[in-house]
Amino acid sequence: MENPQLFLFVTILLLATVLAIFAMKFVVATRQARLRAGAEEAYRDLAGRAVAAQRENAEALRALQAGVADLDARLARVEKVLKEVE
Q1: Cα distance between residue 80 and residue 77, in whole Å
Q2: What's the rounded mean pLDDT across residues 46-64?
Q3: What is the pTM of this model?
């Protein structure tokens, strides 16, 4: 070899490039794992809120059904009274 310094420089540059590529892959993999974990946590939170909302809706529906049943009973009594008056 005519210029051993150039060979050493190219070798070091090649190794640095390989190390940089592996470092970037590691950083990307770590970042994706963190984002995935954050998304899963957000999904769990959303699912929990959806379950709570469904429970509240079911309770409201039961209350409405009880109110409608009460109105039906009152209407039946009013109809009975009106039929008696006729």
Answers
A1: 5
A2: 96
A3: 0.55
